């Protein structure tokens, strides 16, 4: 995934929670690759939702989460969500809403409010749509709010309902937002390598195991700051 990708913190939290994650077709399929290794199935468009239902019927226990992109959900995930609600499936579906169809070239879709020609048009309300499909709750969260995302996921996974969480932040390839790269305090680093587990291309390791931050790639998303427990990576107010 790209530096600053809004999907990365979602897979980091899913890995932390040791969830079984059913995936779908999109750039977020890269969540299956190590070191994240946080996506466990990917067959076809819509399968992130329907596989979650199938596994929930087969496995009575365990944390099972389906993930699907916003454009893929509109294309092939709606009927699966209706079916899950109809069959009284419990669990969580995460719609990774990056406001575009990123994998195939940043095309518009009915959820963006723009046509393929860039003209303004009606915008599909994913929250209302999911509630109409039968989801018990729909939460919308900025995936960069990592602690809040984890808390919501823990809460919804503990419930006996079908929940949808929409993680909403624009794809970094579209967004003009860039923050200062974090500061690296080498004296605080114990070379544990946890920050490397988020699989950010802007983070590397030198021969001694210390972090090398590529500031030309870094977007300043500060996910590495969130996961570092030793304050070796800290926010840079500039």
How would you characterize this protein structure?
This protein has helices at residues 8-16, 47-58, 70-86, 126-133, 146-157, 223-227; strands at residues 20-22, 64-69, 91-97, 137-141, 162-168, 183-184, 203-205, 211-213, 233-234. It is α/β, with parallel strands linked by helices. The chain is globular, with a radius of gyration of 18 Å. It has a 5-stranded parallel β-sheet with strand order 1-2-3-5-4, with helices on both faces. A two-stranded antiparallel ribbon has the order 6-9. A two-stranded antiparallel ribbon has the order 7-8. Helix 5 links the parallel strand 4 and strand 5. Helices cover 26% and strands 16% of the residues.
What percent strand?
15-25%
The largest beta-sheet arranges its strands as 1-2-3-5-4
| CATH architecture designation of the largest domain | 3-Layer(aba) Sandwich
Q: What is the total domain count?
A: 2
Structural class: alpha/beta
Helix and strand pattern:
HEHEHEHEHEEEEHE
Classify the helix fraction into a percent range: 25-40%
Low-confidence runs: none
CATH homologous superfamily grouping of the largest domain: Thiamin diphosphate (ThDP)-binding fold, Pyr/PP domains
CATH class of the largest domain, please?
A: Alpha Beta
Please specify the SSE layout and strand pairing.
Layout: H1 8-16, E1 20-22, H2 47-58, E2 64-69, H3 70-86, E3 91-97, H4 126-133, E4 137-141, H5 146-157, E5 162-168, E6 183-184, E7 203-205, E8 211-213, H6 223-227, E9 233-234
Parallel strand pairs: 1-2, 2-3, 3-5, 4-5
Antiparallel strand pairs: 6-9, 7-8
Helix pairs in contact: 2-3
